[in-house]
Amino acid sequence: MPESPRQDSRTDSRTAPTDEELRTLDAHWRAANYLAAGQIYLLANPLLTEPLRPEHIKPRLLGHWGTSPGLNLVHTHLNRVIKARDLDALCIWGPGHGGPSVLANSWLEGSYSEKYPDASRDAQGMELLMRQFSFPGGVPSHVAPEVPGSIHEGGELGYSLAHAYGAALDHPGLLVACVIGDGEAETGPLAGSWHANKFLDPVHDGAVLPILHLNGYKIANPTVLSRLPQAELDALLRGYGHEPIHVTGDDPATVHRAMAQAMDTALDRIAEAQRAARDDGVTQRPHWPVIVLRTPKGWTGPAEVDGEPVEGTWRSHQVPLAGVRDNPDHLRQLEAWLRSYRPEELFDAEGRPVADVLACVPEGDRRLGATPYANGGLLVRDLPIPSLDDFAVPVDKPGTTLHEPTRVLGDLLAQIMRDTADRRDFRLVGPDETASNRLQAVFDASGKAWQAETLDVDEHLDRHGRVMEILSEHLCQGWLEGYLLTGRHGLFSCYEAFVHIVDSMVNQHIKWLRTSRRLPWRAPIASLNYLLTSHVWRQDHNGFSHQDPGFVDHVLNKSPEVVRVYLPPDANTLLSVADHALRSRDYVNVIVAGKQPCFDWLSIEEARVHCARGAGIWEWAGTEDGTEPDVVLACAGDVPTQETLAAAHLLRRYLPELSVRVVNVVDLARLLPQGEHPHGMSDFEYDGLFTTDKPVIFAYHGYPWLIHRLAYRRTGHPHLHVRGYKEAGTTTTPFDMVVRNDLDRYRLVMDVIDRVPGLAVRATAVRQRMADARTRHHAWIREHGTDLPEVAEWSWNA
Known about the structure:
37% helix, alpha/beta, five-stranded parallel sheet, Rossmann fold, lyase, 3 domains, 798 residues, THDP-binding, elongated, six-stranded parallel sheet, thiamine pyrophosphate
């Protein structure tokens, strides 16, 4: 990983390419177009050494041609400037199904064959390249982890520019080109991502070059930006802080010349902006270049099919000629189309690309398919995490002192920020909530990244800061994904209810990690870590709109080898879980922890042991005394843990003869069967912990049916009763929230009485006392606006 920018690596004042250079650029582009079209159609006869026959054609034609020629043009011209200027570069391919192009170009440059030797750079390898595309046992139609040089899943639109900026952060010598499809440009996340340039530090970060590809159409409709008058589009882009450079046309020779000039102009402007900031100390925010590329959709493909226009229309979006195996006219038209690229000039008799085709291709790691920045595990270094003993809170007795868990974690994160100040490979991102989530200690180590105007009243804004705050969960997620995928570390702090905004994004990242794990050449990257706080149970002034603990449900539906969910019940367990998550690789770790004062239950050493188990008995909290329990009180989450222990306390007082076991769960996946998740318990472990036939009263942080779903196969599931969030809430007192959802200590005691055989008759008076306490609670909060003194002043040793 480069520690500092290579000065003058981008040559200034480029001369226009010669006719010979343009000829070889066109040869490379034609070769890529030929391979892209061949992947959509051909099973055999890859070099057209014989006339096309139906048996040479795939039985199912899948793929997307419309965007491919434009992507091939960008790839070709990026090759030229990378080679001429000796650049470290990465490209994010935003258009949804650009797989044929990126696969074609990585095969031409040789990086694909290096990863997949069977796809050698010859006729045999070309046939495999074409056959495997969108074919059973092959590769997807979009840019996926299988494609060398990729960090961006093309299956869902909207995130390319955010990923590009995340990749550029703290990589001062890196150019990140980002091709944005005009369909993708209509999405909300992409529209918000134009503001990322206000956070890009020209001193410590690399550069992002957006290339807005306007080919005019989506699947079946025109695109908004392509239909704007150029003056209006320019005003929009300039308003975002960019200087547009236009490339427009359908004549290849003209477009090649214009694209080469646009690339040189853009890179010269980037070089000057970086030089001014790094050498002259200029602090004014640059207006970075953006290339607006207008070429026809389906360029160089069939002009019309069956009398309908295709090239330059939405009809070229996917497969321009659909009936090739059955329609002789379509078969002839396909052959004419493929031969129009003159493959005999582009590949020798053995199918190897000729010298003209490869003239623009960089060497070694400079190739876009071979850059280590797209395989971030090759660059990642272990994070320097200090000893937790220096940050842990003392716990002499459980449940007697209180701390704000996230504030304690903030001190640890601040030290990590200090220890990575020189290497700059750790960032904290969040939507305007760092201080709200009690993590503000990090500001003592790093300010908030900011390149826009500052006022005297502003606090903690820093042009070189590594805390990233913007009121867009999409952008925070995209930044962090790009940052992690290119070899760094980070943490995403978010209000629990609003992390749902990135449900779809985390889904894509989980799929990326799952696929990457199966590719031996993909090195493991640092995990994507979420800290979800300001959670459902403590929304004293926000109310119902801020209450939704369902992100955990969403994540646990995903690939079990990738996802992890932790609910630490106090400050020291939060430290232990965070330490584990920040050291881990190739996971998505979801940590749910409160920011309000809560009781300290475990010392740091006890917390380490408990978190390593993931679930365990708190012997000091129960009354088993070596006997088999009559009931198990289980809990997961900080507020449910407090209510469970308060219930155990009441049972000690009113039903001392009852044998009670208290089980706390930190790692939610422990409830799954061993065969369903790597952290799952065997039936033997689970039955030993929860019993097979005793009532289990489980107080859970989120929606109660999740616990049932995780444990439904267990022998004791018929005896499992779960309390959790039931969509009942408003702006109210902390204890009223749990009462409204029947998660309170009094209800838990009533559940015990209702479910332990024989207690319903023997403990009728105790149950009535618990019901009366709930009635007193309702009257008290309406009169006083605070919780009952017996609740507000409760502690384990009271």
